[in-house]
Amino acid sequence: MSNKLPIIIDTDPGIDDAAAISIALNHPELDVKMITTVNGNVGIDKTTANALKLKQFFNSDVPVYQGAAHPLLTDIVDASVVHGESGMNGYDFPAIDQSAISDVHAVEAMKTLLLQSDTPITLVPIGPLTNIALLLSTYPEVKQHIRQIVLMGGSAGRGNITPLAEFNIFCDPEAAQIVFNSNLPITMVGLDVARSSTLSHATVNQLNQLNQTGKMLHQLFRHYRGDDFEKGTNVYDAYTILYLLHPDKFETAQANVQIEVSGQLTKGATVTDFKSPQPNCTVVLSIDPEIFKNLFIDSLQHCI
């Protein structure tokens, strides 16, 4: 019986996604069962190509499944201004074999894997929640096979794409509302924790000396135009993986989180009520910046 934590990563790579996937694919305590892709930072064809580039970079045999090309109801939003035209500008990945993409839809692949698994699996969505909402509403029977959902998204404070909304939730607020009200154990790793521990430019430069993965991430981060760019780099998605590995190092609080779906100025806001008698979510609030830096660098030591 393996004591590795089985996970599914649902992703829209994305430069910070690349950091999260690098750690997850190589860490001895994690067992990535599959990677599913979703429209988000860039369009679905590009996010899927980027997942395959990372799979090939690490010579991984983890299967990649393409998921939703469009949010449930809202219009597509794009973040290529932050991540570059390809979604992972800055590093010259070799060409990929497009035939490596399965013709099974990500939602079907997740359903099959979950229903066949003897052990409950942790879902780690680090993009918009479209695939996860489709999975839970189409196949509610999978819920008993899901250990927890640890997602990157939301904010207990200010947003990053609008004053109140974080990008992943804003991209598909209706999907987020389905997921947050699924009665599954949910952990929201949002903007708060990343803003509490931005990686300095000096730390990002250190990556270049680490290993091949460090060099690759260093080149990507130099092209990453995220929040607080003047101060450093917020590798949002990596926090989800590091939280899975070291939950005791993070400050959290219980809250009831609901998603604003109809507000003209507040669409996509994660309305976080820490006083609610009915919390539906663990909200990750902060981590000591020095501890985060060390966890991040240490986790990358497992990579090539």
TrEMBL record:
Residues 7-293 form the Inosine/uridine-preferring nucleoside hydrolase domain. This is Ribonucleoside hydrolase RihC. One of its GO terms (biological process) is purine nucleoside catabolic process. InterPro entries: Inosine/uridine_hydrolase_dom, IUNH, Ribo_hydro-like. The gene is rihC_1. The lineage of its organism: Bacteria, Bacillati, Bacillota, Bacilli, Bacillales. Keywords: Glycosidase, Hydrolase. Pfam families: IU_nuc_hydro (PF01156). One of its GO terms (cellular component) is cytosol. Its EC number is 3.2.-.-. It comes from the Bacteria. It is an enzyme of class 3 (hydrolase). One of its GO terms (molecular function) is purine nucleosidase activity.
